[in-house]
Specification:
alpha/beta, TIM Barrel, 8-stranded parallel β-barrel, two-stranded antiparallel sheet
Length: 259
């Protein structure tokens, strides 16, 4: 892992150990088992067309504060009404200023599928995702070895959750493609620069994988969507572009006009 990813994971590992003392695993598992079923995440991406995962994100390590006030219920309803196929909810608290409470609020507001967007490394986090209303979790190939990735994938399935596997490089594609959906992130984790051209090249390598392919990061215009669609993407995870907009719903409708 690169240094910033190591730093994020290390801080969240320490925080997770404190959580486990406050809410024992058995107690959390019972809460997760009682959680209502959510809409199928992967199914939302199987029909032809463009499918946007609209991301509720307050901040990021590379861009700092993105949206000062994150009114989760209002944004969730607005983006759902504007045509989002699913929502991604950042729950990482230290670098993205998110939280599980945002996931709960979104789950109480909309019925479309919800992705818990976080740095998942422990089954406990998957139980949290289920308990707070997620339909799916993100697994990042860059921060997990093959054994860890597959164990977490299997556990998510046992909990009734889908998995979006995320790749940043060609070497990560095979592992990410073992998940239910494959995400290709345009961000270089070493430099934090983004390249949609590099994303398009990686997406093209996934043709024939039989899984929905989601383009992640740096999607800003209808032209970006059309270019990535031509490479083979059917889903688009869009966060900063929407969260910086004065009217995120109107911005999403603008982006979907290409469809």
């Amino acid at each position: 892992m690169n240094s910033i990813l190591n730093e994020i994971v290390a801080k969240n590992r320490a925080a997770l150990e404190l959580k486990k003392r406050e809410i024992p695993l058995d107690e959390l598992a019972a809460t997760a088992a009682d959680a209502p079923e959510r809409a199928d995440f992967a199914e939302a991406f199987r029909a032809p067309g463009i499918h946007v995962i609209a991301e509720l994100k307050k901040a990021s390590p590379s861009k700092g504060m993105i949206r000062e006030t994150l009114d989760v219920p209002a944004l969730a309803a607005e983006l759902k009404d504007a045509g989002a196929a699913a929502l991604s909810v950042l729950t990482e608290p230290f670098y993205f200023k998110g939280g599980l409470e945002n996931l709960r609020l979104a789950s109480e507001t909309v019925s479309i599928p919800l992705l818990r967007k976080d740095f998942i490394f422990d089954p406990y986090q998957i139980l949290e995702a289920k308990a707070y209303g997620a339909s799916a979790v993100l697994l990042i190939a860059a921060m997990l070895n093959a054994g860890e990735f597959r164990r977490l994938l299997d556990f998510a399935h046992q909990c009734g959750l889908a998995v979006l596997g995320e790749a940043h490089t060609e070497s990560e594609l095979e592992l990410a493609a073992s998940a239910d959906l494959v995400g290709v992130n345009a961000r270089d984790l070493k430099t934090f620069s983004t390249s949609l051209e590099r994303s398009a090249e990686l997406i093209a390598k996934l043709k024939g994988c039989g899984k929905p392919v989601v383009a992640e990061s740096a999607v800003r215009t209808r032209e970006d969507i059309l270019m990535l669609q031509s490479a083979g993407a059917t889903g688009f995870l869009i966060g900063e572009t929407l969260m910086r907009a004065a009217d995120p719903g109107a911005k999403l409708k603008e982006l979907l006009q290409c469809c």
